[in-house]
Amino acid sequence: MLNKYTAVRLLVFALLILTGCQKPAATTQPETPLTTLAFGSCNREDLPQPLWEPILKNEPQVWVWLGDNIYGDSYDMNVLQQKYEMVKAEPGYRQLMATSEIIGVWDDHDYGLNDGGKEYEMKEQSSQLFWDFIGEPANSPRRQQEGVYSSHTYGPSNSQVKVILLDSRYHRDSLARINRVYQVNRTGDILGEEQWRWLEQELRNSKAKVNIIGNGIQVLPEEQVFEKWANFPAARKRLLDLIAASGANGVILLSGDRHIAEISKTNLAGMRYPLYEVTSSGLTHVYSGAAREPNKYRVGELIKQLNFGILNFNWSHNQVKVEMLIKGENDTTLLKETVVY
């Protein structure tokens, strides 16, 4: 039996089909500095969706999906499509679509295979459903590439923000799990050579003051036992070395997946500023396990409440102050860190 939330979304979806509603064009203009970007992950389509109201209250110009945007977990593309449509029928999300530019990337559950990588047989078909959900034009070159990675630049030349979104599923090597603990694949890859080359060009050629790199799984944390870049130490080292060597300004990492929120920070050799990672996960549900979890890079507290992320950009002269916020229900601020570039 459908719960009341699922029933409401299906009803709204049916009305949308009848009225022929379409996703509006992006509203962000190149000459307008980006001041507010919002992001989140882990959005189960059949659960209550209480965070769209506080997200809208922040008036983000851009919304970034960071994966598990639905819980599809299927080889049947009709199942994934129906669940995407349920999200698009959510009234709060529809309002966000009308007022913000929507971009994003996937993780395993919207990819279609729990904990999956390159072995997923339906990844090409699933890619097209993801692009449909994001609103990528039918003739976009991105629909022809292997993986759903993308980059987006906002603002005039003297105050640009670039958002680089990585696909950490399509080309990912296998990862074993023993007694529910993920093992280490020391030589395994995550991105695939074509995406690595693309990422290097995006970073080295970037003129942006701030460069945001988002993907589904955590990059900096090493001690947690769940999926993370540290399970692929060669790939993780390659990513961090590339960031440091690229000379790109103001790199900030964004991630999801974990059903918790936290901010991590480290210093990389060769970088003139600290590298932060903001993990926001749990738009509809959060982790109910241990109250504590080790993370030597964490600054601030571990958050186990429903949450979303906000980056506020305060531009002045030749510098920008970036506020990294984790917020919850009623727009409550749960975490805050500030950096100036």
UniProtKB/TrEMBL annotation:
Record's keyword terms, sorted: Signal
Pfam families reported in the protein's UniProt record: PhoD
Cross-referenced PROSITE patterns: PROKAR_LIPOPROTEIN (PS51257)
UniProt domain PhoD-like phosphatase metallophosphatase: residue ranges: 53-266
Source superkingdom: Bacteria
Signal peptide: 1-25
Protein name: Alkaline phosphatase family protein
Organism, scientific name: Pontibacter aydingkolensis
Lineage: Bacteria, Pseudomonadati, Bacteroidota, Cytophagia, Cytophagales
